[in-house]
């Protein structure tokens, strides 16, 4: 079992290298929840399926700062992505770890979703 900061780092690394099986292995099988300005999931498999389809735009993750408070990890990040042009997206991610189970059970991400809303029409 890993501490919350290590689990959050392992998850980011798996997403960065597009290893979605490794990312999924770090997420809770029951009670998982993800929320961002453009999507929300209450099932880890559905979330990872979505990430595997949309994650190809991610080129690199830069960790600017991490704060840990018990089972909660707050990360200030820069996602370097390639849409029609290269972009750097500032993002804050709050990861909650179920310490007893040794897995991530909640992720909330905050970022400016405007460029993504243009690509993925959220009105439908």
Describe this structure in words.
This is SnoaL-like domain-containing protein. InterPro entries: NTF2-like_dom_sf. This protein is of the alpha+beta class and 124 residues long. The chain is built from four helices and six strands. It has a single domain (4-113), classed as Roll (Nuclear Transport Factor 2, Chain: A). It has a six-stranded mixed β-sheet with strand order 2-1-6-5-4-3, with helices on one face. Strand 3 (58-69) and strand 4 (72-82) form a beta hairpin. The longest helix is centred in the N-terminal third of the chain and has 13 residues, at 4-16. The N and C termini lie far apart (41 Å).
Give me the secondary-structure category.
Answer: alpha+beta
Shape: globular
| Total beta-strand segments | 6
Main sheet summary: 6 strands, mixed
What is the overall number of helices?
4
CATH class: Alpha Beta
Strand content: 35-45%
Poorly predicted ranges (pLDDT <50, ≥5 residues)? none
Main sheet: strand order: 2-1-6-5-4-3
- CATH topology term: Nuclear Transport Factor 2, Chain: A
Number of domains: 1
Average pLDDT level: 90
Share of residues in helices: 25-40%
CATH architecture annotation: Roll
Amino- and carboxy-terminal Cα gap: 41 Å
- The H-and-E topology, N to C, reads as HHEEHEEEEH
Radius of gyration: 14 Å
